[in-house]
Amino acid sequence: MPENILNVYEQVERNKLRSALVIVGFIFFVVGFVWLVGQILQTDSSLIVAAIVFSLGSSLTGYFWGDKIILTLSRARQVSKKEYFDLYTVTENLCLAAQIPFPKIYVIKSPAMNAFATGRDPKHAVVCATTGLIEKLNRSELEAVIAHEISHIVGYDIRLMTIVAILVGMVTLLSDWIWRTGRSSGNSRRQKGNPLNLIIGLPVLVLTPLVAKLIQLAISRSREYLADASAVKLTRQPQELINALKKLKVDNFPLRSARSATAHLYITNPFKGSARGLSRLNHLFSTHPPLENRISALEKMI
Amino acid sequence: MIPNLAASANKYFKHEKSILKALAEARKAITEAVKSGQTAKMLDAQDMVQKLLGSIKVVVESNPELKAAGVVTRLMEELRDTSDKIMYARRTLIDLSADYNRMRVTIPSNLVAKLFGFREEKGLTTPISGAHLEVSPEEMKTPKIS
Is the minimum CB–CB distance between B121 and chain A shorter than 8 Å? Predict the structure, then answer.
């Protein structure tokens, strides 16, 4: 549940601060980790330089091009007013109410019902919905869902969430890569004799995704309640958001183009209904609060 | 744009003019029946409506791609969106003036407001009388967009 009540400005400041902290923390984590590895392996300092370049590079990428990377990964396409009249005009109207510039509108072609917002600030923002969502919700319910995404934009949640998505993705890639090189050099141990790679590779494999996942969790759970509440403040119709969430709950199509690094961006867990969504461990590490709790929180507003 | 859409929607509806005529007759019959207060007449009117519903169904079923449908839905969508935009614009004005007025009277911002003589904002006012309530003949003409 939401911890203490913040107003929008406090929330914006906190999200900006947290975005900066995540970047700084990430750089320290990567550099520190590589330094430790260097100490054990007695290598030269070129490894640390590489770590600094990598962490700086991925942070900058996350800040400036995170939205584009996420949209490409999700196979989203920019659409016009003619193609998706309701989605487009609903977003226009909500931007009027929220007093933010009009974001770009993207659509993912998928029967799954989901939506997300990304970007670094309201001036560089994107709202993205799946075709399944647009087809199965009526205009008022779509309005409620888009209002939820617009509140993520207004509160600068998108900056923090986009950066986290990119950094989590980078860490996952890196740990994958270290694990593979560790294993391949393990195979050729007879020639080179370097079992240390494996010894380091193992904790990297276990630890880094775990840390990344924990950050993802800490960031997204309470945020959804806050965005739901702000969405109701925009539309003044809690019932429509409740109806939309109920429809989302029944929907069981997993969104194929979602990655575990981008899961926390979506309005509901994109893996529900798939094997990944059903496992107990995944429920414990869920990036989203249960829909029932969100619905009952909204029902108190009526 | 909306008046034009409405005009073209009307043109399409001319095809179903006969049904509209029947509909009007049925309505007339119903009002008459209600006025007279006789149950028998009411039953007659009910029959009429039921027959009419049947013929409407026939028309809709015989032309599954009613040309009017596309234009009409488009018109409805545009209308809904326009009314939504007006609603949001009005509410934004109300919200902002309410926030401003609250700031103006609460500590500490009221000190600044007093110092510079900030006036109270009226918010959304709906005038009940005035020239805008009368329609001039020029305003009755529909602007034509080709």
Answer: no
Instruction: Determine the Cα–Cα distance for residues A85 and B79; give it in Å rounded to an integer.
Output: 12
Residue type for position A39: Q
What secondary structure does DSSP assign to B59-115, as a single string? HHHH-TT-HHHHHHHHHHHHHHHHHHHHHHHHHHHHHHHHHHHHHHHSTTHHHHHHH
Judged by CB atoms closer than 8 Å, whether chains meet at B77 and A93 is answered as: no
| First CA to last CA distance, chain A | 19
What's the order of all strands across the beta sheet hosting A124-130?
A76-78, A104-108, A124-130, A115-121
Indicate the angle between helix axes A291-299 and A238-250, nearest 10 degrees.
Answer: 160
Residue A236 zone, left/alpha/beta (φ > 0; ψ -120 to 50; rest): left
DSSP label of A123? T
The residues of A assigned a catalytic role are: 149
- Which has the higher per-residue pLDDT, A139 or A213? A139
Chain A touched by B88 (CB under 8 Å) = yes
Picking from A89, A99, A236, the nearest residue to B81 by CB comes out as A89
Q: Do B77 and A85 touch (CB under 8 A)?
A: yes
Cα B146 from chain centroid (whole Å): 24
CB contact under 8 Å between B85 and A96, yes or no, is yes
Contact A162, A120 (CB under 8 A): yes
Angle between the A85-98 and A196-235 helix axes, to the nearest 10 degrees? 80
Pairing mode, strands A124-130 and A104-108: parallel
SS3 content of chain B, % helix, strand, coil (to 5): 75, 0, 25
Indicate whether this complex's ipTM tops 0.90: no
**Alpha-carbon distance A90 to nearest alpha carbon in chain B (angstroms):** 8
What's the confidence (pLDDT) of residue A3?
A: 47
Residues in contact with A288: Cβ distance below 8 Å, sequence separation at least 6, in sequence order: A220, A221, A224, A264, A266, A268, A269
Contact list in B for residue A99 (CB cut-off 8 A) is: 92
* Cβ distance of A89 and B91 shorter than 8 Å: no
* Reported pTM: 0.73
Q: What is the pLDDT of residues A27-39, one digit of tens each?
A: 888 888 778 777 7
